[in-house]
Structures are given as structure tokens and as C-alpha cells.
Design goal:
Length: 662
């Protein structure tokens, strides 16, 4: 089912709970007064949040303005393919976005937040001929872009700070964010993650392999799903019931990476090699493993501190690789091999590039994944990024490429795949082309994902904001400086956690562990964040910088942020807790505090301009005539104009128009 969504007047929620909270805009008198007798709330906004942001939040790789003409040409080719598709299927394209609609859409899609009042008014007032392209370029090289696309990848890569108790994963999270910041080519980025060696804070790219610590077979399944858009997990236990992959093929592929070692000594999740075969590397005798066992035993015996033992194990955890045989399971039941038979390493399709033919198994696997001859790698990321921008993939689900699940527009998918190669896997430039198309710059269209008819892309699919977009958009109304805190660097983590396990004694471990706890211990780091940007138990900082996973009751989790245990586990379905959080949650209270962006913006304008300021700040547009009449009536009949203005703010925040990307 497809239908265009005309822009509707904002539907305001009942005034229940709004009027009382809107009194915050006045700073309701409860006996607490600031200088000059101005009332203050019990807990004002933290100074780090209301202060001006630093001149440079982070250094982001610059966009090449010299390629703007090439971007226009590439975008036009995509539009031509869409137009042909529409004619073939009798599709009427959606209307073109006006400037107010475009600025809101592109900020949400590229920066992960709504634009500010100043950003909206400056863009709409601009007479620059190529102002849309100029805005796209500025956003693509902004910290906001880095933050938003980090959230996108965090959901795919299951980024969390403690996937195992013994491992501080902050360096890997920083690495992903930094790869986006520097605009690292996607194939280079993936190859680094698939082949990295070392400890997390020494070479953070190892986090990709460590994310499935002790689970070598699920690691293969997850890697192929994420990078090649193919679901082979069922073949881990039996021949795939819905695809042509066999269990033997799964094990042949897994044999390429089975020699990955993550800690000295026997590896969890790896079966004992068959009789007559040898382990790779140093063989059965492992001096490093013996040193780790000795230190763990001493720490356990002398300190009785489980956390100190985990601290030692974190330092002992590092990724290395040496080829290791992999045998079929003991209950293998097919005629093409016998149980416990050693398999020969083999890729699923195509060949390993000749340049890596004599390398070890993991290097051959990585070279095959990112090889230019492996078109499925480029095709998968082209489809993922198309869905990121347009709301629906050309193949859905994006990790289920099968002959029985063809693309809705095969020619367009292959063209986009060619474009990935043409741009040398520059994903930011790829997104630049997509958002420059006329197809993207059309009104959103409602689409039922369960419909039998595929989506024909008369415009992007109507979407609700992700949890991170909702949070960061509200934060935009609150914080002048949402970057008061950023993720700790690998160097900071290394300084806090690193010890020489081979030569450390118990006293060394205890000193280092105590120092680590003082900075990053349970609750300690969160308390330090609260001191900088805390408000009523919430941290007023970008979602990308938040501790993760957050507790279930947090605003972000209520709005569907993933627990990061499953690939793309985020959700945008509506729930009752979401309504309660929007009506009366602490982060929405912050919006009406003195010092918040919208508070200061409204009070800086004349009363007759307040309605326009509120609409432009929240919905990125001026009110329609009937909306202006309702808002004026609310303000003039309230017990005080500021209370009425607060009601308008609260009402707009709780409309469908605010929550959906139209």
C-alpha cells in the first residue's frame, strides 16, 4: 500500500500534564529565586551544556567541492533510472520538497537532528542558487554527520562498551566513530577490521573480531550477514532450508578464520583438533598462557577480588592468527563427508584474489570479502546506504539476498553498485549523490512493508525518527553545546588499563586496577558525566557519546534503541512509555528551562514573533493560518503568556509531524 502524505496541520495532544510543566518556562515560584528575583527551577541546566560549543568540536575530513558537477551528473543518472521505472509501473512521483521541508529532512538524514531556528531561517532566506548542495556539503563534513552515522553503524555492528565483562570496548567504539570522521574508504575499513591483531587499546579495529569472542562460527555468520548481505547461519547446524548453502560449505568458509586466537591457551568455542593434526603457532606449549594462569591464580588467591581477575584477563586478551584445522561436527549427517572430517578452507563463491592466494586463511577471507571481483560486497553496501537515505532497500531485508528475493529495481541496484566502485568505496560521497537526486528531494510516501507490491520510490518512504534522532532533536532544543563530553580515546583507556601481564605481580595489578576503577569503575564514569552534563538523572549529550547499552528505562531505550545484542536491533514502533516520556520526561522538561536554546530563542524575540519562533524551532516551518489562530488563542487565554507559549511548545513536540521524517 502506497499513499502520499499531504502536510497536515499539527495535531496537538490534550493539555493534560502540559500546563503544569509549561510553568517551567516561567520558572514557577517555589521559593527559589536567582539574581534579580528571577525564579529558578530546583535543578538548572548544567553550565557546560548552556555554554557556547568549542570552535572545533572535532576535525572532520573536508568534502571536495570540486566534485559538485560530477555529483549532479551522477544524481541525474539515478533520477533517469527512477523515471523509467515509474513509467513502466505507472507510478506518479511525489511533489518536490519546499525549502522548509528540505532543510528539516536533510538535517535529520545527515546530521541526525532537526535544524535550529537560526539554521532554518538562514537557509530559507538564502538566495544562493546552489544552496541545497552547499548545505549538503556542510552537513557531510560536520561533527553532526559523524555522530549520526556512528549511530547507524552502532546498530549494525552491535557496538556496546562491555560485550564481555573482561573487555573495555571503548577503543573499538572510538575507532568506528573515527573511521567515519576521517571518511576512511569502506573496503579499507572492513579489511582492517577483518585482519587486525593486538589488544583493543593498541589496535582498536580488533573489536570487530572480539565482538563474537569465543563464538567462531556465529562470527562467520554475522560477518557474512553484515558485509555480504547473505544469511548462512542456518547452515551452521544443517543444510539451509530456504537457500542453497550446505553445512559443509559453512564449515569450509569458517575454516578460513578458525585459527583466530583471542587469548593465550585453548580457545573457547573451538573444538579440539582431530587426532593427527597440529595446532598452528607455538603448539600446545604456550609460555604466555602459563604466565597468565599464574598471575590469575595469584590475584585470585591473594586479593579475592573478581574484578581484579577480570582486569588481568582484559590485558591478556589480544587477537592473533595462525592457520588451524577445522573439522565437521560429530553429528554431521550428510553423504558428502564424514563426522569430524577436516574440511578444506573455501569461499562461498568466486575465488580468493591472486594477491592473497598464498596468505593465511584469515587474510584470504578478508581479501575475498572486499575484492573488487566480489560484487556482492559492493552491492550489499549500496543497498544498505540506499535504504538509509530512502527508507526502504532495493532488496529487503538488506541481509537476505537470494534468487527468490530479487531487487525491486535490479537495474538501479546494479547501477548503484557500479557507483560504489566508481567512488572507490567513499560512502560519504555515495550519500552525497543520493541526497542530491530529485528522487530524494520529494515528499515522503507511506509504505506498508508487509505489502505484496514492492516500493517503487515515488519519494522516500515515510519514517519515524530513530530513538537517537528523537533524542538529538530534543537536545537541539535544549543544549547550545551538546558536545560537552565525547567518547574516551584509546590512549585514555590504555593509560588506565594497560599492564604487562608477563611481568606483573599482584601489587602491580592492584595498583593499576584501583587506578582504573577511579576513572572507569562501575558507576564512576557515569557519575563524572553527571557532574558535567547531568540534568535530573539524564545526560544532556549526543546519543553517540552515551554509555551503552543504556538501561531499559532510559528515553533512548524507550524509543527503541537496540540493546546491541542483535544486528540492527533498533525499533521505531510506538509504545505507551514513549508517550509518557514525551509528555513528562526529564529531557523534555529541560527544554523549558531558562538557558535552554528554545527558551532563550523565544524570549529574545518580540511576543508577536513567538509563535513563528516556536514553529520554526520545532517543525522547521511557519504555522498555517488555523495553527496560528489556535496558538495565539492558547497564549492569550493562558494564565500568563509564557505559560501559553510553553503549551504551544509542548503541543508541537507531541505531534506526529515532529516525530516523523516527512
Amino acid at each position: 500500500m502506497i499513499r502520499h502524505i499531504p502536510q497536515q496541520p499539527a495535531v496537538w495532544p490534550p493539555r493534560l500534564a502540559i500546563v503544569a510543566v509549561a510553568c517551567l518556562l516561567l520558572g514557577a515560584d517555589d521559593g527559589r529565586r536567582g539574581r534579580g528575583g528571577r525564579p529558578q527551577s530546583a535543578a538548572g541546566l548544567p553550565a557546560a551544556v548552556t555554554a557556547a560549543p568549542p570552535a572545533q568540536v572535532m576535525e572532520v575530513a573536508a568534502v571536495d567541492r570540486g566534485r559538485r558537477d560530477a555529483v549532479v551528473v551522477a544524481a541525474r543518472r539515478i533520477d533517469d533510472l527512477l523515471a523509467t521505472h515509474w513509467r513502466e509501473h505507472g507510478v506518479q512521483p511525489a511533489p518536490r520538497l519546499n525549502d522548509e521541508q528540505f532543510v528539516r529532512r536533510v538535517y535529520l538524514d545527515l546530521a541526525g537532528r532537526i535544524p535550529t531556528y537560526d539554521e532554518v531561517t538562514a537557509f530559507v532566506a538564502s538566495r544562493e542558487a546552489a544552496k541545497r548542495a552547499a548545505l549538503v556539503d556542510r552537513l557531510l563534513e560536520s561533527p553532526d554527520y559523524v555522530s549520526h552515522f556512528y549511530n547507524f553503524w552502532a546498530d549494525i555492528l552491535r557496538l556496546t562498551e562491555r560485550p564481555q565483562k573482561t573487555l573495555p570496548f571503548e577503543p573499538y567504539l572510538y575507532y568506528v566513530k573515527d573511521s567515519i570522521r576521517t571518511n576512511k574508504p569502506y573496503d579499507e575499513w572492513v579489511h582492517e577490521m577483518l585482519t587486525a591483531d593486538g589488544r583493543l587499546w593498541e589496535n582498536p579495529a580488533v573489536g570487530f573480531q572480539l565482538r563474537d569472542f569465543g563464538m567462531p562460527l556465529p562470527y562467520v555468520d554475522n560477518t557474512v550477514r553484515v558485509l555480504l548481505g547473505t544469511q548462512i547461519g542456518c547452515a551452521q547446524c544443517h543444510d539451509h532450508p530456504f537457500d542453497h548453502w550446505t553445512q559443509k560449505q559453512f564449515y569450509e568458509l569458517a575454516a578460513l578464520t578458525s585459527g583466530t586466537k583471542m587469548r593465550p591457551g585453548p580457545q573457547p568455542g573451538q573444538e579440539k583438533p582431530p587426532a593427527g593434526t597440529r595446532r598452528g603457532g607455538a603448539g600446545m606449549r604456550d609460555p604466555e598462557a602459563a604466565a597468565v594462569r599464574r598471575l590469575v591464580q595469584e590475584v585470585r588467591r591473594e586479593t579475592e577480588r573478581p574484578g581484579a581477575v577480570q582486569f588481568v584477563l582484559a590485558n591478556a586478551t589480544k587477537v592473533t592468527f595462525a592457520d588451524r584445522p577445522l573439522a565437521l561436527p560429530h553429528d554431521y549427517q550428510y553423504d558428502d563427508a564424514k563426522p569430524l572430517e577436516v574440511v578444506s578452507p573455501k569461499v562461498l563463491w568466486g575465488d580468493v584474489p591472486q594477491s592473497a592466494a598464498t596468505a593465511d586463511g584469515r587474510a584470504r577471507f578478508a581479501a575475498w570479502v572486499v575484492a573488487h571481483d566480489n560484487r556482492q560486497f559492493a552491492r550489499t553496501i549500496a543497498n544498505r546506504m540506499w535504504r538509509k537515505v530512502m527508507g526502504v532497500g532495493l532488496v529487503e531485508p538488506v541481509d537476505d539476498f537470494r534468487a527468490e528475493n530479487p531487487a525491486s529495481h535490479p537495474a538501479l541496484l546494479e547501477h548503484l553498485t557500479d557507483l560504489v566502485y566508481e567512488l572507490d568505496f567513499d560512502l560519504r560521497e555515495f550519500v552525497r549523490v543520493l541526497v542530491s537526486t530529485a528522487g530524494y528531494q520529494r515528499r515522503a510516501v507511506a509504505y506498508d512493508h508487509a505489502a505484496a507490491e514492492p516500493f517503487r520510490f515515488p519519494g522516500p518512504a515515510l519514517r519515524r525518527m530513530t530513538a537517537e534522532q528523537v533524542w538529538d532533536s530534543i537536545l537541539t532544543l535544549v543544549a547550545r553545546n551538546p558536545w560537552a563530553v565525547q567518547r574516551p580515546t584509546p590512549e585514555r583507556i590504555a593509560a588506565a588499563v594497560s599492564i604487562d601481564v608477563a611481568h606483573a605481580d599482584v601489587a602491580t595489578v592492584e595498583r593499576a586496577f584501583d587506578a582504573y576503577l577511579a576513572e572507569f569503575g562501575p558507576g564512576r564514569y557515569q557519575r563524572s558525566l553527571q557532574q558535567v552534563c547531568g540534568y535530573r538523572g539524564q545526560l544532556l549529550m549526543r546519543a553517540s557519546e552515551m554509555p551503552t547499552p543504556l538501561p531499559l528505562g532510559h528515553f533512548l531505550r524507550q524509543f527503541g534503541q537496540s540493546d546491541r545484542e542483535s544486528i540492527e536491533g533498533g525499533r521505531t514502533v510506538a509504545t505507551i512509555p514513549q508517550i509518557l516520556a514525551m509528555f513528562n520526561g526529564p529531557v523534555t522538561h529541560a527544554m523549558l528551562q531558562p538557558g535552554s536554546v528554545i527558551f532563550d530563542e523565544v524570549t529574545a524575540h518580540r511576543p508577536e514573533e513567538a509563535i513563528d519562533v516556536v514553529f520554526l524551532s520545532i517543525l522547521s516551518r511557519r504555522p498555517k493560518a488555523d495553527e496560528r489562530r489556535i496558538a495565539r488563542e492558547e497564549i492569550t487565554t493562558a494564565e500568563a503568556p509564557a505559560v501559553g507559549c510553553g503549551n504551544v511548545v509542548w503541543g508541537l513536540l507531541n505531534t506526529r509531524e515532529f516525530l516523523f521524517i516527512q
